[in-house]
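yo

u said u wanted the structure for the complex thing, so here. seqs first:
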Amino acid sequence: AQSVAQPEDQVNVAEGNPLTVKCTYSVSGNPYLFWYVQYPNRGLQFLLKYITGDNLVKGSYGFEAEFNKSQTSFHLKKPSALVSDSALYFCAVRDPFYGNNRLAFGKGNQVVVIP
Amino acid sequence: GAVVSQHPSRVICKSGTSVKIECRSLDFQATTMFWYRQFPKKSLMLMATSNEGSKATYEQGVEKDKFLINHASLTLSTLTVTSAHPEDSSFYICSARDREAASATHFGYGYTFGSGTRLTVV
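structre next:
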């Protein structure tokens, strides 16, 4: 079965500092990996994905993530955090082996960027 | 880009009444729609998966008679919370999968989320 772990509940970072949100996954085959951001009382907005190809994926709003197969990780990063990056971040994985198109989500990380 | 419209954004209803939530794909055909429930500071819990023209597949522990899902067309799916109780109060989010984008590398690989519905049962 597919699963995602986001080990930290909350990530605090000072504005201008690098931001990292951790994610590890478990799937049977090669994973499709996603990051989403959610602002209060809103749906999820797509940030980036890894399907195949280059392990370093660049996405929206200056975010990037690196797929590491040996560590089964897909950490989200941003070189310089903004106050507006404060939100809830979800990592998700789809296991194409199962063919059911479902995404499995991590529990989410609250990111707080301190001015 | 792909847009999913979810209505209403907020609804307050009395205990025992039913509430319908709509999820529409505005510029694409959604062969599959997913309905999630999100508790405060918690992840998304998949409730059911619906394919156009067929019955929804419910996750274990989700009452199909309480959470009625209809996916009558390629652009519309509805979730009806029947005989709502205060414990049904939650944030409900739909997600639509674009049949065309599902094999493409844009639009998040075909998963687009609605803006969510805050249901409060009093």
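Residues 81 and 112 of chain B are 22 Å apart (CA to CA). The mean pLDDT of chain B is 87.
cya
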